[in-house]
């Protein structure tokens, strides 16, 4: 319908040069109007995402007062009005244990994101930052690690064959035998949310158990089967005997069509809160995350995703796609 309207307008403008002149004159103002409208909607969604994360954290800590919450990307939410000049958003930052980000200095090659680097530097020093860098050339791995750790952040460098987090690196950055009981004590972390390279759950467990990473970030499920509490407990000790943290990945901003909650008749806009295709990830759809039906999938009841994570004994949750508040309205 909208396309037809523009087509009709184009024909009309071709016939009337005076109207066409004024249309061209006011077109920038029209574009600016709709851009500002989208920005306002995104700003409102940002506040809804803050409340969503806070509610998830409070729900989890009713079961485990030390439960760790790490949102990935969307660092702007840590600041009032998504602007570091407006100060820290205390209610949000107070429930967050740390921040996860991807591709800060490297996105294939060296491409520093100076905007996000400054945002991360403006965060409170008490909050741990976990940076996953994508480094295609192995010769640049040392540089990526150096740039990240120089800021006091943890680095997980992904190589060209590890874009989707399916391999365990051969080396552990700042390897140690310390007991890690809080996120702030960690010196390194493993990001392994794909299990495609393992033929069985036990094979994956054995591979992780033989490492000395301080923090292990994995999916709740191996295929369609959730890890059990005893299995997660077995991962909480490094091979050198030190204690470590085990964190579960959870996508709170996009629905994934292979998850237990997905219904056979779901598709884009059905339900209506399945809002927008996720560019580059055909099996995921950005969601209107503030809708009750979606939030009940994520937390608040015994069949919710968060309750399954808690029942499995994870030390925390890694909340992916919190930046949905932005990508629902912008590309």
Describe this structure in words.
It is a single chain. By secondary structure, the chain is an alpha/beta fold. It has one domain (2-327). The chain has 10 helices and 13 strands. It has helices at residues 2-15, 17-61, 90-93, 114-121, 141-149, 201-209, 229-234, 292-298, 305-311, 324-327; strands spanning 68-71, 98-110, 128-135, 154-158, 190-192, 215-219, 221-222, 225-226, 245-251, 254-256, 274-277, 284-287, 316-320. The strands form 4 sheets. Strands 1-13-9-6-5 form a 5-stranded parallel β-sheet, covered by helices on one side. Strands 2-3-4 form a 3-stranded parallel β-sheet, covered by helices on one side. It has a 3-stranded antiparallel β-sheet with strand order 10-12-11, with no helix packed on it. The radius of gyration is 22 Å and the shape is globular. The model is unreliable at 1-9 and 30-34 (pLDDT under 50).
Using DSSP, what is the number of strands? 13
Strand content: 15-25%
What count of structural domains? 1
Flag low-confidence runs.
1-9, 30-34
* SSE order, one letter for each helix or strand: HHEHEHEHEEHEEEHEEEEHHEH
Oligomer: single chain
Give the strand order of the largest sheet, numbering strands 1, 2, ... along the chain. 1-13-9-6-5
Number of helices: 10
Name the shape in a single word.
globular
The mean pLDDT is 92
**What would you report as the Rg, rounded to the nearest angstrom?**
22 Å
Beginning-to-end CA distance, first to last residue: 22 Å
What structural class results from the helix and strand content? alpha/beta
How much helical structure, as a percent, in the residues?
Answer: 25-40%
The major sheet is characterized as: 5 strands, parallel
